[in-house]
Amino acid sequence: MTDSQPSYGEGTRAVHTPHPPAFEQEPLGLPVYRTASFAFSSANEFAEVLGGRAPGYSYSRVDNPTADAFATAVAALEGHGVDDDIVGQPFASGMAAISSAVMAHVGAGDHVVCAAAVYGGTWSLLANVLSRFGVTASFVEGNDPADYRAAVTDRTRLVWVETIANPTLAVADLPELAAVAHEAGALLGVDSTFATPVLCRPLEHGADMVMHSATKYLGGHGDVTGGVVVGRRDVIDPVRHLRIDLGGALSPDDAFLLHRGVSTLPLRVSRHSASAMVLAEALATHPAVARVHYPGLSSHRDHPLATKIFDAGRFGGMVSVDPHGDRDAGILLCDRLRLGMPASSLGGTRTIVSHVASTTHRQLADTDLARAGIAPSTVRISVGLEDPGDLVADFAQALDGLR
């Protein structure tokens, strides 16, 4: 301490410690900015940054460098081959991302056209939550773009689909659906959680914004929750403002884990896809199985479309199977597995299963399940990174017990 510096008390010295050293080298690991607030050199700079008139960070609910790095990474993957300025916004969960993406572009009196075979949380957001605030929704059965066109009204502002539907594994005809939305002056929003940018990049096919529950494949290890929405800046800026107002901020520690997961995403999805194909082919030959849903199978209705819009040789790590019987048959299949574990979420290293009607789509009545093409016995399988032969044997012994 020089003579010109004041002699502070110990409490002040403990709070105002020296700044960390500055250095020129780039860290290979993403720094974690575990801070709620950022300091400024002046009150005017504070006002300019917080007001969006100058670049920088003020408060981590607004923006955080680690969270931004994750969202930017996903935007770079999804924006490959797209000429527009593609940006991303990070969220604390997939549902926070979905709700902000939808609510940023619809309001009271507006209409949404949505696939009937959609994640239960999305269905509930539209049917049970936004309906209370004057937003109406039409749920389209099947996968024919003509049915979406027929559902459009002069109040339609958004068409929402999933690249690969949860849990029917139907594949959305993204180019045709983009045309339907844009003819109506609406946006096409796509939940591409099951596909990831490794399989398909909806922006290349005309989508306006793409959402991922990053908890799943982007994180990849079942140890973090998060979400992200990417698209053109004019589409995503309202999503950012709503994220700030609603408070669905992604924590810097979670952002670090998600960013780390992105670096191994192509390797993992390739392995998931290869193993899922092996398992789907084996399940399709078992006498206790009524139907297997997997777009990689030539018997799948949307196999030609998947071959057209997916990257060659990859059809994803999700498989759904309908054992013969009712709800009890699906529940028993889950309970008899030794490697496949009943659990929430998907896209991790372990194979996990869920009886759809009683878990992920529990919000839907039997009539709604039937409209979405979901059988009472349907079991959704997130194929992990185990040896595929071991998975085939595990499902075979479980299915043998159903006969």
Percent of sequence in beta strands: 5-15%
Helix-strand sequence: HHHEHEHEHEHEHEEHHHEHEHEEHEH
Structural class by secondary-structure content: alpha/beta
Low-confidence stretches: none
Q: What's the helix count?
A: 15
Distance between the termini: 82 Å
Task: Compute the number of strand runs.
Answer: 12
Main sheet: strand order: 1-7-6-5-4-2-3
Mean pLDDT: 95
Radius of gyration: 23 Å
| Helix content class | 25-40%
The largest pleated sheet is described as: 7 strands, mixed
Shape: globular
How does this structure look, described?
- It is a single chain.
- With 403 residues, the chain is of the alpha/beta class.
- Helix content is 37%, strand content 15%.
- It is built from 15 helices and twelve strands.
- The strands form two sheets. It has a seven-stranded mixed sheet with strand order 1-7-6-5-4-2-3, with helices on both faces. A five-stranded mixed sheet has the order 8-9-12-11-10, covered by helices on one side.
- α3 runs parallel beside α10 and α13 crosses α15.
- The longest helix is centred in the last third of the chain and has 19 residues.
- The protein is globular and about 85 Å long.
- The model has no long low-confidence stretch (mean pLDDT 95).
